[in-house]
Amino acid sequence: MIALHDVHKAFGAKRVLSGVTLEMPKGESMVIIGGSGTGKSVLLKCILGLVVPDRGRISVDGQPAEGGDRDAFLARFGMLFQGAALFDSMTVWENVAFRLRRGRDKLPRPAAREVAVEKLRRVGLGPEVADLYPAELSGGMQKRVGLARAIAADPEIIFFDEPTTGLDPIMAGVINDLIREIVTEMGVTAMTITHDMSSVRAIADRVAMLHDGVIQWTGPVGEMDRSGDPYLDQFIHGRADGPIAAVR
Ligand SMILES: Nc1ncnc2c1ncn2[C@@H]1O[C@H](COP(=O)(O)OP(=O)(O)OP(=O)(O)O)[C@@H](O)[C@H]1O
Ligand SMILES: [Mg+2]
Questions:
Q1: What atom in ligand 1 is closest to the CA of residue 12?
Q2: Could you say which of 144, 157, 171, 240 has the lowest number of CB atoms within 10 Å?
Q3: In 3-state terms, what secondary structure has residue 21?
């Protein structure tokens, strides 16, 4: 579904991606892991065209990601941003229904609200939060509203940037199950960035580790524990000692 070939991106003198090659099969759940600041969010933004790579090729479903009809391209994606990125001036349900209220097939307000309330329910939020503003919610609730917005328009491909960070363990489990469910039941292709190893095991079909600008290791989640890769081993066990320096 998504193929990256030799993707490079630098910001000034800082090289972030230096030749990322990765394929994500359709209908599978890919989890990207890697240290803070290694370029995971940048990688995701490159696929969406929010950040333009310096070099390399990215294609989605066989079509080049750049050029073409941007609206039609973006309509295939749902995205949960790392910081939730809700619109402060809109209520919760208006945030969730944002995409549904735009474009050619836009839904009337009452129908859009109904979809929003249903999506909120799926992420563990009751109808009483629908008319609140983001500032009236806790951080974890805002994250779940971001998730509800990502799934609202039933996209084919969903990106989740740190979906469980800041959630309590039970709610993290609910969100992991939800991600697994939308991949299995709705045939969605999902790409999730996370630091949470229990999330990796709950969500992933395949895992890819980004390190030093390239994919250090990729494979099925079942092979992660016997990869023999010292970088991956250090990361999944959270060891301070190993080939990855703690100060970057
Ligand atoms: N728009 C930008 N302009 C300049 N530098 C940027 C920009 N976006 C990201 N960077 C830099 O690129 C590097 C990678 O950032 P990125 O957000 O992808 O990290 P990450 O792997 O997602 O980290 P974390 O796990 O902490 O979220 C960082 O050094 C960051 O400062
Ligand atoms: Mg990030």
A1: 4
A2: 240
A3: strand
